[in-house]
Inverse folding.
């Protein structure tokens, strides 16, 4: 664990078997070589929180986070 902004942060993925794209924060299976959302290839297992967006065009949360495609997204990528 490490300190981040006064809170303790676990260095494990909150969802085993998944990783987060450093570019768009999409959470995808570890086996994936390319992000299906942005096409990125830079991933991390160090991320915090999870939001699932079903209808980004109708979601206030998706708009606030800048998400335009349905999927699972990390709240924060470390």
């Amino acid at each position: 664990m490490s300190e981040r902004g006064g809170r303790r942060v676990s260095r494990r993925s909150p969802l085993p078997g998944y990783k987060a794209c450093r570019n768009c924060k999409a959470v995808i299976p570890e086996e994936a070589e390319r992000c299906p959302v942005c096409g990125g290839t830079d991933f991390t297992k160090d991320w915090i929180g999870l939001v699932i967006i079903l209808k980004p065009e109708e979601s206030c949360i998706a708009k606030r986070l800048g998400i335009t495609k349905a999927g699972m997204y990390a709240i924060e990528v470390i």
